[in-house]
């Protein structure tokens, strides 16, 4: 098989149930911790005894820049080492060499989801750290206060910490949103290659829902039901679709 580490369509039942029962993995929503959608997309990044080293894989791509498997090996090595950003760059080369290979696109989509989840978690941790640092500076021992317990001197340290944190968090939010949108875009390409595959529609719907792209999620869930009305997950999909439509109507 072209991508030996890629999990097959059966995994999507578990992903969908996690989303449906957990209320959705929307950006900066519930579900950021533990095993996330991105982990399932890319097989949890587990190490393999046959995984090449990053250095050897990189050397092979330099010697054979048009060798698809060489770039795939580099992507795998980087994923195993937890270097998702670099793995995306390598996987994009794979897709560039075989643009009509759905497995290559699916692997890239999974990496984007993993990247989005990572950026989301980094932003959340940064917010917590900034809140603690800001609170600590406001209660610094010896601070001059009025009889009403109001500080008499501006807390410049706290203000600086909060300002820097806000900028960093915003940057991470943008990066997470961009990664999620890129995952959706990758799945849209797969749909064009396999328009009658209900599994692909379900994958697109789940990814779009995570990205907050309600319109795309609704369209993909609807298409899934048309292609596989008797699928075991059809009842759950209908419930999810109803909730999305109601939320979309309320928002509108």
Verbal overview:
- It is a single chain.
- With 252 residues, the protein is mostly helical.
- The chain has helices at 11-22, 37-41, 54-63, 68-80, 84-97, 102-138, 156-193, 198-211, 214-227, 234-251.
- It is flat and about 70 Å long.
- It has one domain: Tetratricopeptide repeat domain (Serine Threonine Protein Phosphatase 5, Tetratricopeptide repeat), CATH 1.25.40.
- Helices cover 69% and strands 0% of the residues.
- It has ten helices and no strands.
Give the domain tally. Answer: 1
What does the average pLDDT come to? 78
* Count of beta strands: 0
User: Helical segment tally?
Assistant: 10
Helix content: 55-70%
Sheet with the most strands, sense and barrel status? none
- Uncertain residue segments: 1-48
| Radius of gyration from the alpha-carbon trace, in angstroms | 22 Å
What is the subunit arrangement here? single chain
* CATH class category: Mainly Alpha
The dominant shape is: flat
Detail the topology: elements first, then pairings.
Layout: H1 11-22, H2 37-41, H3 54-63, H4 68-80, H5 84-97, H6 102-138, H7 156-193, H8 198-211, H9 214-227, H10 234-251
Features:
0% strand; 10 helices; disordered N terminus; 252 residues; mainly alpha
Could you provide a short overview of the structure?
By secondary structure, this protein is an all-alpha fold. It is 69% helix and 0% strand.
């Amino acid at each position: 098989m072209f991508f030996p580490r890629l999990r097959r369509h059966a995994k999507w039942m578990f992903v969908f149930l996690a989303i449906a029962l957990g209320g959705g993995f929307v950006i900066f929503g519930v579900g950021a911790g533990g095993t996330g959608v991105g982990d399932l997309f890319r097989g949890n990044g587990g190490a393999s005894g046959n995984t090449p080293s990053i250095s050897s894989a990189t050397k092979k791509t330099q010697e054979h820049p048009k060798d698809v498997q060489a770039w795939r090996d580099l992507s795998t090595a980087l994923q195993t080492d937890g270097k998702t950003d670099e793995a995306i760059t390598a996987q994009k080369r794979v897709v560039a060499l075989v643009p009509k290979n759905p497995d290559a696109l699916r692997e890239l989509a999974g990496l984007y989801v993993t990247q989005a989840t990572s950026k989301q978690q980094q932003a959340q941790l940064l917010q917590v750290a900034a809140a603690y640092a800001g609170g600590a500076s406001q209660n610094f021992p010896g601070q001059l206060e009025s009889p009403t317990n109001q500080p008499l001197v501006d807390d410049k340290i706290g203000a600086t910490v909060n300002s820097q944190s806000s900028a960093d968090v915003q940057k991470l939010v943008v990066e997470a949103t961009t990664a999620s949108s890129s995952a959706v875009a990758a799945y849209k390409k797969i749909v064009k290659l396999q328009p009658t595959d209900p599994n692909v529609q379900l994958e697109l719907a789940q990814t779009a829902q995570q990205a907050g792209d309600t319109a795309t999620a609704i369209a993909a869930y609807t298409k899934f039901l048309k292609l596989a009305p008797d699928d075991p997950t059809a009842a759950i999909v209908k419930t999810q679709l109803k909730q999305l439509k109601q939320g979309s109507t309320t928002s509108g």
